[in-house]
Design a protein that fits this description.
By secondary structure, the chain is of the alpha+beta class. The chain contains 18 helices and 20 strands. It folds into 3 domains: 23-180, Immunoglobulin-like; 215-404; 441-604, Alpha-Beta Plaits (2-Layer Sandwich), CATH 3.30.70. Helices cover 54% and strands 18% of the residues. The N and C termini lie far apart (118 Å).
């Protein structure tokens, strides 16, 4: 074995050479421009520095030795995590051709608050372009979901590009940038729009399909699934940048928050769907406690974001997303152990979701190379998951239908085996009792003379109607009718003629009312009716029409034709009233006013 010993001066010289060699490996890489560039990733050609205090300016950056910055050698890892720092990315471009080259720089991530670009020409001139979520959409140099910057570099020139990425508070730092020639970028956008159209069109189709299939079933899980599906679609619009570009770019809050809030709500509804569909509370209490914990974490994440703890919110959302990867195991337990055959599609759906999420997390961790293929594979995976969940719901409906048919079949067999004679007697007796009950109720609530509802009927049905309109928030008006000078009619023509007048008024009024209105005779010559869903103006118009009709008609009697009039009192039923008594009192006051003012008129309270 031969041992080489270096004296101190020589060793010092060697170390200097070694350090020089190592520093040369950090020499600044230069992008060679060409006429054909189709999404060339810049990661390996950029230097990055983290400005944790957010104090550096472009002048500070230009004065620095760029070779001292970190060289992004790992082309897969462009995500720097959740950060409140400013991140500077530097690279150089060179045009070694004999003609000018037009090209486009694209920052792929669509949610960065501030992107400041500085273009340093070979003559030292600094050109700036500022964009980002917090800046107006119409100020972008190129209309795009991502952030695109056009450049034109003259033949034989060497230029520098500096890009600063930052957030107002904190956010996900994604430094991926790509280089395109203008035609390739335009083609890329066109293809993306076709894909986006197919993606969101499929999402809308799934929603409509779900509405058509599941509304008749009234499954509780369906409502949670539909809400989850809706917010997945909104989340897709937010994360692709389409929502910002075409829908809410005039709303700074939605521009900044839509993707976080939509993801949070999608997770909340997904967890609730899982609990209801798998019936974890009844059959898997441990799994249900875990899902409840995830639900609490997700709600805390949403509240943290609302109250401006954004870094914590994003981390909690990521934790929830990763934790939901256990759903295939819970579904598998329901399928195999609990013998839930309708859980098979559920297991497949969440397995696809977990794989798609795994690809997304792998990209964030730098384990998977960022590419359009990876990006669209994740998006299509999430879409496929929603479709498979729809199949799971259909399977669930089929299982419930089969259980219902089996139960009905067993019931029929049981009934057929019972004593048919006794069954017929019981049925006949039941029908008889029901008819008797209905007849007794009708007699108790019907005015014998007119055939309309009596005072008991009016108050009983009226109170029910008041409760319903109070719950639904509908309008409700009350009208009282009193036949003018009725005593004189009786005295002049006899009580039989008076009865005919009462019946005539009841008949005219009944014809004018709807089946939903409540009408009854509440006194000798007094009637009242409730107009459901009608305001005061409508009630007055109807009363005036009825008043004129009563005035223009007559009743035959042995002593000749009897003409008569009626007075009306109209009031609005206040939904805060505990009952109809207060409204009836107000209507009575309006009726008294009509009498006092000459009768044959309509007055309002």
């Amino acid at each position: 074995m031969t041992i080489f010993r270096l004296n101190t001066p020589f060793m010092g010289f060697f170390i200097v050479l070694l350090l020089g060699f190592l520093s040369s490996t950090q020499a600044f890489a230069t992008l060679q421009l060409s006429d054909e560039m189709s999404g060339l990733t810049l990661t390996a050609k950029t230097h990055v520095i983290e400005d944790s205090q957010r104090e550096l300016s472009i002048d500070d950056i230009l004065k620095m030795d760029w070779s001292e910055f970190q060289l992004q050698k790992d082309y897969k890892k462009t995500v720097q995590g959740v950060s409140a720092s400013a991140w500077w990315v530097m690279f150089e471009v060179e045009n070694q051709t004999d003609s000018k080259i037009d090209w486009v720089l694209e920052a792929v991530y669509t949610h960065t608050d501030f992107i400041d670009l500085y273009h340093i020409t070979e003559q030292g001139e600094v050109k700036t372009s500022f964009t980002g979520d917090k800046r107006p959409n119409d100020k972008r140099l190129i209309s795009s979901e991502s952030y695109a910057f056009p450049f034109s570099v003259a033949a034989g020139t060497h230029e520098k590009i500096v890009v600063r990425f930052s957030y107002e508070k904190a956010g996900m730092i994604e430094l991926l940038m790509r280089v395109w020639d203008p035609i390739a970028f335009q083609n890329h956008q066109s293809i993306s729009y076709y894909l986006f159209g197919g993606l969101f069109g499929a999402g809308l189709f799934v929603i409509l399909f779900t509405l058509i299939i599941h509304i008749p079933s009234q499954l509780p899980a369906y409502y949670w699934y539909l809400a989850y599906l809706l917010f997945v679609l909104i989340d897709g619009l937010a994360n692709t940048g389409l929502g910002y570009r075409f829908i809410w770019h005039d709303s700074p809050y939605l521009t900044d928050s839509a993707h976080i809030l939509a993801t949070t709500l999608a997770f909340i509804f997904a967890i609730q769907f899982n609990r209801v569909f798998l019936q974890t509370k009844q059959f898997m209490p441990r799994a249900d406690r875990l899902l409840q914990a995830l639900l609490v974490i997700t709600i805390i994440a949403g509240l943290s974001y609302i109250f401006d703890y954004r870094a914590l919110s994003i981390k909690l959302i990521l934790l929830t997303g990763i934790s939901l990867g256990i759903m295939p195991l819970i579904g598998l337990w329901a399928w195999k152990v609990l013998k839930r055959s309708d859980a098979r599609w559920y297991v497949i759906a969440w397995a696809v979701w977990s794989i798609s999420l795994g690809v997304l997390v792998g990209r964030l961790m730098g384990l998977v190379e960022m590419s359009d293929t990876v990006l669209w594979a994740s998006r299509m995976g999430f879409l496929l998951e929603t479709v498979l969940l729809s199949f799971a719901l259909i399977d669930r409906i089929n299982v419930l239908r089969q259980e219902k048919l089996t139960a009905e079949k067993n019931l029929i067999i049981s009934l057929e085996s019972a004593n048919s004679t006794l069954e017929e007697k019981v049925l006949a007796r039941t029908v008889s009792l029901e008819k008797a009950r209905q007849a007794a109720q009708a007699m108790a609530e019907t005015d014998v003379l007119t055939g309309v509802g009596n005072r008991r009927y009016f108050f009983s049905r009226g109170e029910d109607t008041l409760k319903l309109t109070r719950r639904l928030g509908h309008a409700l008006t009350l009208v009282m009718i009193d036949i003018d000078h009725f005593k004189k009619i009786n005295d002049s023509n006899g009580h039989a003629a008076g009865d005919d007048v009462i019946k005539h008024v009841a008949e005219l009024t009944q014809k004018r009312l709807r089946s939903t209105d409540i009408f009854g005779r509440i006194g000798g010559e007094e009637f009242a009716f409730l107009l459901v869903g009608s305001g005061l103006d409508e009630a007055v118009k109807l009363s005036e029409l009825l008043r004129k009709e009563i005035k223009s008609t007559f009743v035959d009697s042995p002593l000749g034709k009897i003409t008569f009039t009626a007075s009306f009192g109209v009031t609005t039923v206040k939904l805060q009233d505990e009952g109809l008594d207060a409204s009836l009192q107000r209507a009575d006051q309006a009726l008294y006013k009509a009498k006092h003012n000459g009768r044959n008129r309509v007055e309002c309270h």
